[in-house]
Design a protein that fits this description.
137 residues, Lipocalin, eight-stranded antiparallel β-barrel, two-stranded antiparallel ribbon, globular
Length: 137
């Protein structure tokens, strides 16, 4: 099992004692969005996490999402915290769309997959599910 192993704090990589650690991991993926303009999104991001001896994983990820089908969806930028134990981690974050502004992110991520939803302050709600190259935690 590969461990992603540092915590991102204000743009700095800070080592955490008692945790398995490694550098940040670049990943790419495809997400299918549902609601609003349903489309296929390309995803490119950076993720970093730490695993405690108890098996609990905590970390962060940042990604850029962009419309691959030309349906008018504006690029999105997302920053999320991930935490959990086992094969699936909970994800909570915030994002910014060039089209709708600030939105919240709630979902789950795991080995090569992710799913969840976004909600903007204007009331726009979208779901998403997809695959990525992230691999195991």
């Amino acid at each position: 099992m590969r461990y992603l192993k540092t915590m991102a704090l204000a743009g700095l990589m800070v080592a955490c004692g008692g945790m398995a650690q490694a550098g940040p991991t670049l990943f790419a993926g495809l997400d299918w969005t549902i609601g609003g303009n349903t489309t296929l999104q390309g995803v490119v991001g950076l993720a970093s996490s730490s695993m405690a001896s108890s098996g609990r994983v905590t970390g962060a990820k940042g990604a850029v999402h962009f419309d691959l089908l030309g349906r008018g969806n504006q690029p999105e930028f997302r920053l999320s915290a991930v935490s959990g134990k086992g094969e699936v981690l909970g994800e909570l974050g915030v994002g910014y769309s060039l089209g709708t502004g600030v939105f919240g992110v709630l979902g789950a991520t795991g080995n090569y997959f992710e799913f969840g939803g976004t909600a903007s302050f204007q009331g726009d709600v979208q779901g998403y599910f997809g695959v990525n190259s992230y691999g195991s935690f």
